[in-house]
Amino acid sequence: MRVVITGGAGNLGSKLREHLETADWVEEIVAIDVAPFTAGKKTKVVVADLADPYDERWRKEAQAADGIVHYASANPAPNSSWAESAASFDMTANLLEQAGGGTKPCRFIFASSNHAMGGYKDAPLPTDGKLRMSTPQISGTRYYDDGYKWGSAYGATKALGERVCAARAAATNGRITAVSTRIGWCQRGENLATTIAGSGGGDRGETDEAVIKRNALWYRNMWLSNGDHNRLMVAALRADASKWPAPAIVVSGMSNNTGMAWDLEEAREWIGYVPEDNLWADLKAAGIA
């Protein structure tokens, strides 16, 4: 495959890019970002602005791609402004328009986020306690950072991105097949379970112990290890779409964390994702839980 990775210099883009460098089924990696960076021998670096629909530097790469993994964002954080989130949505729409050049099949992986369903941190879960593709969306996570804030713009961008992927896949009659992955908490660097053992960074200044405990459970259960992140994306790139209920699907992107609300059965069935890590097992081994 010829795989395009947007946001190729970022946290997740770098992790996947380095992993695919060793994959014998990947012929070339095209890593797109807004600034130059150094990459491996199999990677072609392209400096381009995905928010510009006329930028030929990225357009020709998207048109030639067998697979696109779209991480790029104007601001990949829940404090993203509406203007930044609108620019991020433009990137997704622009890429989908060029994917496959209008003639060839293309697998499009949209790096959605747990924030697409972030309202369930505080709202009641479905009756079966699981969050899956068919669960009504409540986007944006409410978090405490010297006062309550709500990642509404960022979460809405991810929720709408999932829907535009579905619309584009349907419009192309499955020539473009799309997997939106609701990525959990994948920290920079080693990304150990033990380094999000507290509040997850969302309770700075909160004093209510019951709220802190509830929020910590939500954040911990979103953990996605580096290994499982790479396994998730590889599975999404290589999956047989004939097994899917539609040409575009949405799957949870977490590790196999015991007792979490995020359902992984659809990811296992539809793309063959087999997570190997479990935050609670790691915390137990470290004597924390």
UniProtKB/TrEMBL annotation:
Name this polypeptide is given: NAD-dependent epimerase/dehydratase domain-containing protein
The NAD-dependent epimerase/dehydratase domain, residue ranges: 3-180
